Amino acid sequence: MAKKKVIIVESPTKSKTIKSFLGSQYVLLSSKGHIKDLPKSKLGVDVENNFAPQYIKIRGKAKIINEIKKACKNSSVIFLAPDPDREGEAIAQHLAEELNSNAADVKRALFYEITPEHVKQALENPTAINSNLVDAHKARRVLDRIVGYYTSPILWTIIKRGLSAGRVQSVALRLICEREEEIEAFVSTPYWTADATFETEKKQNFNATLWRIDGERRKISNKGELNRLQDLLKKNSEFTVTSYRATNPTRLPPPPFITSTLEQESSKRFGMSARKTIRVAQSLYEGIRLPQGSIGLITYMRTDSIRVNAAALGTLREYIAAKYGEEYLHKEIRKFKDRKGAQSGHEAIRPTKIELEPDHIKEHLTPEQYKLYKLIYNRYLASQMAPARYRMREVILNYMEVDFRAEEMKPVFPGYQLISGDVIERGMIPKIKVGNKATLIDIKFEEKKTEPTPRYTEAGLIKKLEENGIGRPSTYAHIIQTLFERRYVLKNAGRITPTELGRQVYKIIIPRFPDVFAVSFTAKMEKEFDQVENGKKSWQRVVREFYDPFVVDLNNMKKDAGKIKEEIVEKVEKECPKCQRPLVVRWGKYGKFLACSGFPECKYSENIIVEKSNKKCPECGRDLIIRHGKFGKFIACSGYPECRHTENLVHEVPCRICEGEVIIISTRRGKIYKCKKCESSSFYPPVEEKCPTCGKRMVVKRGKNHCPDCHKSKSKK
Length: 717
What we know:
Layout: E1 5-9, H1 12-21, E2 26-30, E3 36-37, E4 45-46, E5 52-53, E6 56-57, H2 62-72, E7 77-80, H3 86-99, E8 105-108, H4 116-124, H5 131-158, H6 167-185, E9 190-200, E10 205-213, E11 216-217, H7 223-232, E12 238-247, E13 250-251, H8 259-270, H9 274-286, E14 288-290, E15 293-295, H10 310-324, H11 367-382, E16 388-399, E17 402-413, H12 417-420, E18 437-449, H13 458-467, H14 476-485, E19 489-492, E20 495-498, H15 500-512, H16 519-533, H17 539-568, E21 570-575, E22 582-588, E23 591-596, E24 605-606, E25 611-616, E26 623-628, E27 633-637, E28 646-647, E29 649-650, E30 662-667, E31 670-675, E32 681-682, E33 686-690, E34 697-701, E35 704-707, E36 712-715
Parallel strand pairs: 1-2, 1-7, 7-8
Antiparallel strand pairs: 3-6, 4-5, 9-10, 9-18, 10-11, 10-17, 12-16, 12-18, 13-16, 14-15, 16-17, 19-20, 21-22, 22-23, 23-24, 25-26, 26-27, 27-28, 29-30, 30-31, 31-32, 33-34, 34-35, 35-36
Helix pairs in contact: 3-5, 5-16, 5-17, 6-14, 6-15, 8-9, 8-13, 9-11, 9-14
């Protein structure tokens, strides 16, 4: 009987897809992720022995490991084929250690896409396990364990159990909290804008906006200047055209997606979290069952390179020319340049088969898979299409040292925007020449206020992390998810807000680790990991350079733990009814509560009534109060736990559709505003202002009043 060839991947789905197009001489196995990790019950790093990690089998994986060993025992060759990145290389290394067999030839296979051609090619050209990649993973894992293992117990002592202060997670929390401090410190100042309608000598109207005052580009900054301009700019004032400019700008398509840009665009377009985006992308990569067989629809989704191989580009360009015509194909192969430090071993995220159009296979995809696949497909398709061409006109009108500016932008040739759909069309300027006169027939001054930089969205935070060199494609989603799971942050109207607990952790950790939790230091560590991956630095040296300053800060914090706890303990003017000692504010699973300062001798505790609701409990008649739960605020009976009545908060503005009462439901994804009468729901709260077009109430979306029916937005005053 001929010996079989074994392929071990980490995902059961990937295993099924590959098995569907390989012959019977191959046996497909799945490790179901990592099989080894550091122990949970202890540090698992021998600091005295050059930081040697003490990996052990993950609980529950012994059966899988034994099945793999049994299947490999009489094989002719073993292909270790987990994902082609640091995590995958570590899995491959741990599998090789467990197999430790001379009976078969153990090789590493790298699958960047799960298609018959690519998988067969990878099996014909196997490699060895990349020890540098394994070491880079080891360095990150050891550092993260050291930070978490030593700092988390201090937080437990000072605040409560269950908290953590991860190495990169703490820096992300720092960015969020520092943004919140900027918002709180921001002092809003008023300013005014002016929009005017002009009439040409040929009786043609057009609109323009105040642009310069006394030769300086700015808004109206004070009431004195507003009054002066209101007196100056009267109807029938005659302006002179001082500048007319006509240009033909072009718009170039963006490059294909990398992990961070896919997460950002998915968040903006669909409100999909980074974690969900990666999960859906993983399913597209690992394989979808189509009538012609199972196939991976996209290339590997954890990448920071926009490179695409020449063969794929050739196929794409032939497809564009055939489907849309030569005029829609860019004249030459468009090559995008990777940013500095990108790991160009992986390609950009692209469809594996350009002929598998999203709409043709829609019925075989879930709604999320379809949306994400279409996003990836169209972005890749557009990347080799011709630029969009526009006609742009600009007119400057002057009267008494006040300049108004009008702009017209009209599409001439859609190019790639035929696919992307983001065509720009705005303004209208009639035929006019320098020296012509234009009469002011209407002007509106609008008061506005300067606004602080908004809180981060998930997309914005990922962009900030990437810009600062913090984290890598495989870590962005995990970093953000951890912050939500620890309840350090929550999402409100799509934006990330630090909780009181998150800010408390930030205020304790950051000042006491000024170096290791600095943005620049964390970015430097990412570059160090890259040097390990490139074989330019030993992983032990990288860990040592981090560990030495970290231990100094850690020891200082341990000494001050008691003092820090005393400083942050919030005392109230109330005595314990059991032992008459003062009550203090403590942290619990879902927020703050009052407890006896004599704990653990006295275990008395009670709820903190933060806000009263001015309502009575319909079940027992006691006051209803506003409490904090797992996902946010809700109304509950003050007699809890004897009475367990709860209600949702009520929004102050009624439903925009039927005028019914709107309740606020707090969820993991943020607040949902649901009408009790018509049951319509939205992530965006209704406001009193009504849409000038349809007359319905608007909602607040991304900081602006927005009409969902007319798709119009208006800046909030």
